[in-house]
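Per your request, structure below.
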């Protein structure tokens, strides 16, 4: 083989090797792009789920606040009634069943 032919063959092999490497890079980029797109979709889904859960948590906190206020009001009513006269209609002093009234 002549030196020019040897150089041309060497360059051809180098170009073929580079073409293979470029194809590998293209496939990797394609795979990575698909993974990135899937990650974006998953992030959007998680963000939407988080928003829904946040709304439910806010509603639960409001409900709990209302329940706490109702319970506090009930305790206040019970406390007030306990301080007032007997609300059951009986006398302050118990009466024995055998005693005449």
């Amino acid at each position: 083989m002549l030196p020019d032919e040897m150089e041309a063959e060497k360059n051809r092999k180098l170009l073929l090797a580079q073409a293979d490497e470029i194809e590998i890079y293209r496939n990797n980029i394609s795979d990575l792009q698909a993974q990135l797109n899937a990650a974006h979709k998953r992030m959007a889904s998680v963000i939407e789920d988080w928003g829904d859960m946040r709304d439910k948590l806010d509603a639960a906190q409001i409900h709990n606040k209302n329940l706490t206020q109702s319970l506090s009001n009930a305790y206040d009513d019970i406390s007030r009634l306990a301080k007032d006269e007997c609300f059951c209609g009986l006398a302050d002093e118990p009466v024995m069943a055998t005693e005449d009234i």
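Helices lie at 3-83.

Regards,
D.
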